[in-house]
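pinging the channel bc i need a second pair of eyes. not urgent but kinda urgent?? the chain im working w is below, pasted from the shared doc
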Amino acid sequence: MKHTNLVRSLVLSVALAAGTTAFAQISFNIVVAPPAPMYEVVPMVQPGYVWAPGYWAWNNDRHIWVRGRTIVQRDGYRWAPDRWVQQGGSYVRQPGRWERSLEAKPIKLKKTKHNNGRRNHGQNGQGH
């Protein structure tokens, strides 16, 4: 009986290892070009944010549109949107990313005043 359990454990370990290795090596090529970008109305963006335009993503067997969104600005960087590039006979999506930019303007946010500049004394009159 002990021999049978040992063999089962060994076979299961080998099967799991082989399955993990096979999973790590799966790849596929997308040979269908993405459609033209969809038109989106760019909303008013608050200071400290930028607009990241929508893009086509690949989902199972087709392209799907991912809507644009606002993202937090990074000082000294500009947002390079997602795009598709053709490599050989396949298409590869390059995800959006931050790129250093000399033209990027520093973020200037308004300072807000809390309690007219006074300390918060709570209900018992003592500071925190």
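so Confidence is low (pLDDT under 50) at residues 119-125. and The radius of gyration is 27 Å. — does that match what u expected or am i reading it wrong
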